[in-house]
Amino acid sequence: MNDEVSKTLTEVSQDSKNIALLSWIGTLFFGFIPGLILYLIKTDDEYVQDQSKESLNWSITVILAYVVAFVLSFVVIGVFLFPVIGICHLVFCIMGAIGCSKGETFRVPYAVRLIK
Question: End-to-end distance of the chain based on CA atoms, in angstroms?
Fold first, then answer.
C-alpha cells in the first residue's frame, strides 16, 4: 500500500466516509443533486468536499454524454451509446462508493473536471 492511500485511511473519520458514500450512491440515483448539496453544505470536511466535487463532476460528465447521445440518436449511433453511458455511470458510481467506504480518494478517469 502506498503512503498516500495509507495516509488517507488513517485520517478520514467514519462519518466522513459515510457521507461521501452517500454522495456517490445519491449520484447513481438522483444525478448531480446530492453532490451539489454536499459540496455546498459540507465545506468544513475536506474529504467529503473532495468526493462530492468528484461525484458532481462525474454527474455533469454523464449529463453531457447523454445530451451528445441524444443528438447522435438522429443518426442512429446515439441509440447504441445510451446503454454504454448507463453502464459506465453504474460502474463508476459503484467504484466511487467502494473507494469512499475504504476512505480512499477516488478519481473517475474520464470525468470532465469543471469544478476544481
Answer: 27
Please tell me the distance from the alpha carbon of residue 7 to that of residue 67, in angstroms, as a whole number: 39
Write down the domain spans for the chain: 3-102
pTM, two decimals, is 0.82
Per-residue pLDDT of the chain (116 residues; tens, 9 = 90+): 444 544 444 588 888 889 999 999 999 999 899 999 999 998 888 999 999 999 999 999 999 999 999 999 998 888 899 999 999 999 999 999 999 988 889 898 888 888 88
12 secondary structure, DSSP code: S
